[in-house]
Amino acid sequence: MAPTDRLQQVREHLVGGAPSNKDPTRVDGHVILITGGAQGIGKAAADLLARQGAKIAINDVDAAKAKAAADELQAAGCDAFFLAGDLLDEAFPERLVNAVVARFGRINCLINNAGFCVDSAVHKMTDAKFDIIMKIHNYTPFRMIRALSSHWMDPANLDMPKSIINISSTSGLHGAMGQINYSTAKAGIIGMTKTIAAEWGRYNVRCNAVAYGWIDTRITRPPDGSETVALAGQEIVTGIPLSAKKWRDVSDIPLQRPGTTSDAAGVLLFLASPLASYVTGTCVECTGGRYL
């Protein structure tokens, strides 16, 4: 494709071939697959992207919540699909991608959002706790991306908009006490993001990450037993205890508050939309200014 043709394609992508007042935040007809999309940031992103015209594919390990999220979108007139399943099953990512392609005919954007924390001080961290966090935050995004390769490298799909958004954290950028496993994994996802951006740019794929700070979700609230992770035959309660007073202090956040899931979803819309058509290989920080 000649450079002038490519520039024209970008212009058409930005305005949809319509007059220049076309809303560039619209993602009309884009098929967006969100892992962990039934609650928290994932659900907020699904709701926002659907309102902006996307067709939404939701994955979550909780089948009831995944179905409820998809039903809610369908009731609002949006095109939504769900497939529940455990992403820690190494064969599941490929089944998930194939199911979404079978349902919608394509995938335009993958948001690797699924994840959880199992915290412990370094000297108390077990191999099992370390390993499961690496699997959900590194192996799973890698397998999801790899599963897209044949679909996105198909010459017939070369020119369609394609993007990946990986979820990182300020723990990955700055480290965090009690999170040696999570911090290591979230630092690793940034390296993965940059590598995919470098390798797959030739296939018209953008790949970016978002490093979130304190976003008010179930995973960042004090443990109450409602969220657990099965680990080595045990149910591990997730959440950040109230004793983490320094982390919960908003005095070092210029905006003086934790973020909402709506705040978090807005960044994902930007990266998925034509507004970010020349943004790739970067990590956007959504922190309220913490760590300036």
From TrEMBL:
Pfam families: adh_short_C2. PANTHER family: 3-OXOACYL-[ACYL-CARRIER-PROTEIN] REDUCTASE (PTHR42760:SF133), SHORT-CHAIN DEHYDROGENASES/REDUCTASES FAMILY MEMBER (PTHR42760). GO terms for biological process: fatty acid biosynthetic process. This is Short-chain dehydrogenase/reductase SDR. The lineage of its organism: Eukaryota, Fungi, Dikarya, Ascomycota, Pezizomycotina. It comes from the Eukaryota. Belongs to the short-chain dehydrogenases/reductases (SDR) family. The keyword NADP applies. Gene3D superfamilies: NAD(P)-binding Rossmann-like Domain (3.40.50.720). One of its GO terms (molecular function) is oxidoreductase activity, acting on the CH-OH group of donors, NAD or NADP as acceptor. Keywords: NADP, Oxidoreductase.
